[in-house]
Amino acid sequence: MTTFETFTTETRRPTRNRIAAVVVHLAATAVARVRVWHNRRQVARLLGWDDHMLRDIGLTQGDVTSALAVRADEDASVQLSMLSLERRYAAKAQARERLAHGAELRAGGARYRVKR
Q1: Looking at 2-102, which runs of residues are DSSP E strands?
Q2: pTM over 0.90
């Protein structure tokens, strides 16, 4: 039994298209690496800020140090923004719980009534 493989021009990509795809991929990778490096340097500059300035933007020195502790090929600014969002959402959740607790106290909830 003999098998023949046939290729049409539609199924086979020309070599120059493959080379162009590789070049585009390498360029995109290089741009992404430079962006990660640049963002990492910007985050490292935040270590020079005092606690009051960092608190104004919702961060702490620990957040900045933690963001810089990620792998070198990960974007530290993304990690930093996630830490900031987590802190903001936690503060909002605590505020909601305090409001609910206060409302329950004002309404004289059964849990807080004095037994006589």
Answers
A1: none
A2: no
